[in-house]
Automatic annotation (TrEMBL), chain A:
PROSITE patterns: GST_CTER (PS50405), GST_NTER (PS50404). InterPro entries: Glutathione-S-Trfase_C-like, Glutathione-S-Trfase_C_sf, Glutathione_S-Trfase, Glutathione_S-Trfase_N, GST_alpha, GST_C, GST_superfamily, Thioredoxin-like_sf. GO terms for molecular function: glutathione transferase activity. Pfam families: GST_C (PF00043), GST_N (PF02798). It is an enzyme of class 2 (transferase). It catalyses: RX + glutathione = an S-substituted glutathione + a halide anion + H(+). One of its GO terms (cellular component) is extracellular exosome. GO terms for biological process: glutathione metabolic process; xenobiotic metabolic process. It comes from Myodes glareolus. Residues 85-207 form the GST C-terminal domain. This is Glutathione S-transferase. SUPFAM superfamilies: GST C-terminal domain-like, Thioredoxin-like.
Automatic annotation (TrEMBL), chain B:
This is Glutathione S-transferase. InterPro entries: Glutathione-S-Trfase_C-like (IPR010987), Glutathione-S-Trfase_C_sf (IPR036282), Glutathione_S-Trfase (IPR040079), Glutathione_S-Trfase_N (IPR004045), GST_alpha (IPR003080), GST_C (IPR004046), GST_superfamily (IPR050213), Thioredoxin-like_sf (IPR036249). Belongs to the GST superfamily. Alpha family. Its EC number is 2.5.1.18. It comes from Myodes glareolus. One of its GO terms (molecular function) is glutathione transferase activity.
Length: 221, 225
């Protein structure tokens, strides 16, 4: 339908999942064109849709945006999930960038060669439990508010909650020592838009299994 | 002096250089505190000033900011170098992110294991030539304006100039097929604040040499990736 953002990616989480979460949390309906073959990707490259020949690509408001951060920044601004002024934006950016550093390790895990998986998983466990989760727990403890910044839902909360779920999939007791993070996750998960997204049948993608990884590799290699 | 941003990093380009460029282009004076030893870094960590125990860190307007994009976004907004609306910002972000990807590729030439260096150099040259430089030449060609976005100076023109200079350092012939990029490079270099920053004696940092790399490795107890 005209007007809805269109997401171009393969059928997996990868770098597009954070975009799906943010749109869903903002209550924005979106379409997806899920690439299945190398030709699908070549076609996009050849028609000039991909500025750097890379995905993700989102068509939104007449723009063909690539680069995950450009896409997320635009959505967050448009749907008022980016703080009330530039100082709040700075804090939100700082928090979001830390989460993206952790997410780099997490989103690659399914796609790593077998011999690298264990090492990466150890890194994820170490960094999440010793660097990232303590940092965000501390933020929540410092102000006692329901959300990370400005006492209002922002993109940083949405991203954090996504990561809390994804890290827990890889490390089931990861959140054990972080009561405030658990409470935030519950709170955000109960928001109507997020609750809907968490239900089966939504556009949320599952953890990538071998079949999914094989299909993705066919498109990109 | 109270009021000036203070940059905490080591005395080299690394991930702080783009921030130095942006402040300089905006005509903003800034101070620098250089990490000389690993103890300097450990002290900042122990004092709780580094949210993720990492540099760069910038003290600005009462905030202790880490994460280079958070710092750059704030500076760009404050000094009106981030476009006039959300759509211009989206283009600026898209273009900026491509430049950061290329810059990171070139940084990996310096930080990788020595036996990988040749391969990393080839990769950076190849991507510059076939992916990034053509993309930005195409932007300039599409509107024939003096700046990348919105017909006025924004952060991304500064980021582009910086990376074009690095590309030139890597291989001076790489820019030859891109007349519009060369013209933009001249134009932006001539802006008074930029011209000043390009002169010797400014806070601009020189290319890496073995001495700088060794020092950085000691401070960061470095493991190449």
């Amino acid at each position: 339908m005209a007007g809805k953002p269109v997401l171009y990616y393969f059928d997996g989480r990868g770098r597009m999942e954070s975009v799906r979460w943010l749109l869903a949390a903002a209550g924005v309906e979106f379409e997806e064109k899920l690439l299945k073959t190398r030709d699908d990707l070549e076609k996009l490259k050849n028609d000039g849709s991909l500025m750097f020949q890379q995905l993700p690509l989102v068509e939104i408001d007449g723009m063909k945006l690539v680069q995950t951060r450009a896409i997320l920044n635009y959505i967050a601004t448009k749907y008022n999930l980016y703080g009330k002024d530039m100082k709040e934006r700075a804090i939100i950016d700082m928090y979001t960038e830390g989460l993206m550093d952790l997410d780099e390790m997490v989103l690659y895990q399914p796609y790593l060669p077998k011999e690298e998986k264990e090492g990466n998983l150890a890194k994820i466990k170490d960094k999440s439990r010793n660097r990232y989760f303590p940092a965000y727990e501390k933020v929540l403890k410092s102000h006692g508010q329901d959300y990370l910044v400005g006492n209002k839902l922002s993109r940083a909360d949405v991203y954090l909650v996504k990561l809390l779920y994804h890290v827990e999939e890889l490390d089931s007791s990861a959140l054990a020592n972080f009561p405030l993070l658990k409470a935030l996750r519950t709170r955000v998960s109960n928001l109507p838009t997020v609750k809907k997204f968490l239900q089966p049948g939504s556009q949320r993608k599952p953890f990538e299994d071998e079949k999914c990884v094989e299909a993705a590799m066919k498109i990109f290699h | 002096m109270a009021g000036k941003p203070v940059l905490y990093y080591y005395n080299a380009r690394g991930k702080m250089e783009c921030i130095r460029w942006l402040l300089a282009a905006a005509g903003v004076e800034f101070e620098e505190k250089f990490m000389e030893t690993s103890e300097d870094l450990e002290k900042l960590i122990k004092d709780g000033r580094l949210m993720f125990q990492q540099l760069p860190m910038v003290e600005i307007d009462g905030m202790t900011l880490v994460q280079s994009r958070a710092i750059l976004n704030y500076i760009a907004t404050k000094y009106d170098l981030y476009g006039k609306d959300a759509k211009e910002r989206a283009l600026i972000d898209m273009y900026t992110e491509g430049i950061i990807d290329l810059t990171d590729m070139m940084l990996r030439v310096v930080t990788c294991f020595p036996d990988q260096r040749e391969a990393k150099i080839s990769l950076a040259k190849d991507k510059a030539k076939s992916r990034y430089l053509p993309a930005y030449e195409q932007v300039l060609k599409s509107h024939r304006q003096d700046y990348l976005v919105g017909n006025r100076l924004t952060r991304v023109d500064i980021h582009l100039l910086e990376v074009l200079l690095y590309v030139e350092e890597l291989d001076s012939s790489l820019l030859a097929p891109f007349p519009l990029l060369k013209a933009l490079k001249s134009r932006i270099s001539s802006l008074p604040n930029v011209k000043k920053f390009l002169q010797p004696g400014s806070q601009r940092k020189p290319p890496y040499d073995e001495k700088i790399i060794e020092k950085a490795k000691k401070i960061f107890k470095f493991q190449p990736s």
